[in-house]
């Protein structure tokens, strides 16, 4: 009996050791899974969060259905190319493309740009839309005749000067949520956060649309 009790006593710690190893293994798997999930969430969330940490905060706030309709109202009887500065998930660009515009969006957030391209493809307007990953301060908007801006008050004075320097007199700038500080809007629609202001440069800066000089033909 003494020998049997000693053998049993030796087996008990061994069984407990095996159970502890299994629990330790599961613990490592759970830790690895949680760690991997956190890393993935960080990779996805970082591009959305970092814009709010810049000197000029330009967070992603989707345009409302009313804002989109107000923008389209300001584009009635307009033609030419269109650009959305800070295009977010592409809903303004896509809505304009459905109205026949060749529409382009500039957005610094790569995740939103890729999602915008997918939405444009899903809605069947990918041939009339383009989305670029770019900083708006490093892009010239000189060849656009319709400009849509979703900005914040801190950036509007500098952006106002940039657009005035770059755009032709036939351009129309449509500001959403916040107006430009110096320009007087030619048209306003909506109310509250859905308010949209439209500025025609030929009136805002008192310029005359450039005309082509015609050189008279000389007889040969």
Automatic annotation (TrEMBL):
Membrane topology recorded in Swiss-Prot or TrEMBL: Single-pass membrane protein
Record has Signal as a keyword: no
GO MF annotation: an example: protein-lysine N-methyltransferase activity
InterPro entries cross-referenced by the UniProt entry: FAM173A/B (IPR026170), SAM-dependent_MTases_sf (IPR029063)
Superkingdom field: Eukaryota
Subcellular locations according to the entry: Mitochondrion membrane
GO-annotated biological processes: methylation; positive regulation of sensory perception of pain; regulation of mitochondrial ATP synthesis coupled proton transport
A Gene Ontology cellular-component term: mitochondrial membrane
TM ranges: 26-45
Region named Disordered: 1-22
Keywords annotated in UniProt: Membrane, Methyltransferase, Mitochondrion, S-adenosyl-L-methionine, Transferase, Transmembrane, Transmembrane helix
UniProt record similarity statement: Belongs to the ANT/ATPSC lysine N-methyltransferase family.
Protein name as it appears in the record: ATP synthase subunit C lysine N-methyltransferase
């Amino acid at each position: 009996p003494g020998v049997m009790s000693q053998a049993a006593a030796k087996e008990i710690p061994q069984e407990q050791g095996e159970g502890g190893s299994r629990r330790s293994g599961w613990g490592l798997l759970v830790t690895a899974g949680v760690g991997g999930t956190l890393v993935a969430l960080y990779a996805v969330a970082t591009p959305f969060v970092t814009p709010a940490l810049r000197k000029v905060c330009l967070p992603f706030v989707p345009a409302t259905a009313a804002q989109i309709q107000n923008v389209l109202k300001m584009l009635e009887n307009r033609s030419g190319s269109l650009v959305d500065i800070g295009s977010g998930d592409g809903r303004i660009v896509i809505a304009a493309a459905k109205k026949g515009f060749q529409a382009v969006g500039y957005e610094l957030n790569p995740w939103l740009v890729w999602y915008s391209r997918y939405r444009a493809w899903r809605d069947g307007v990918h041939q009339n839309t383009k989305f670029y990953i770019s900083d708006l301060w490093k892009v010239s908007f000189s060849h656009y005749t319709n400009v849509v801006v979703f900005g914040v008050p801190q950036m509007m004075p500098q952006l106002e000067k940039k657009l005035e320097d770059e755009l032709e007199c036939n351009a129309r700038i449509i500001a959403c949520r916040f107006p430009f500080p110096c320009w007087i809007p030619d048209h306003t629609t909506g109310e509250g956060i859905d308010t949209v202001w439209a500025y025609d440069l030929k009136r805002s800066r008192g310029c005359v649309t450039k005309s082509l000089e015609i050189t008279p033909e000389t007889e040969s």
